[in-house]
Amino acid sequence: MTLSNEPPDHKPGVFERPGVIKAIVVALSIVCGLLILAEFFYVKHPHFGFDGWFAFYPAFGFGAYCLIVLGAKALRPLLWRGENYYHEADVDVSDIDPSESSSGSHRRD
Hints:
This protein is mainly α. The protein is 40% helix and 0% strand. The chain has 2 domains: 1-42; 46-81. The mean pLDDT is 82.
């Protein structure tokens, strides 16, 4: 995927390659499947009863993840700021005094 601000000779990073992305998705799916299968081989000690159901914790985690994502989508219009939020006031370069710069350097020459 090339963005408009990338040079035409941009080489994609490791995690931008479709083969690597597919391998990660497959590996995570296999690990999740093995963890769900592992529920058959250990004794659960539920505290509330419903947490002893088959695959309760994976389902609960997925539900919590979905709520977080949907909550973030709902909050985005409230928290969104324009692209030039921090640069709305145009500053004239001639108004800036270099001797009063707060670049973090406190060295005197």
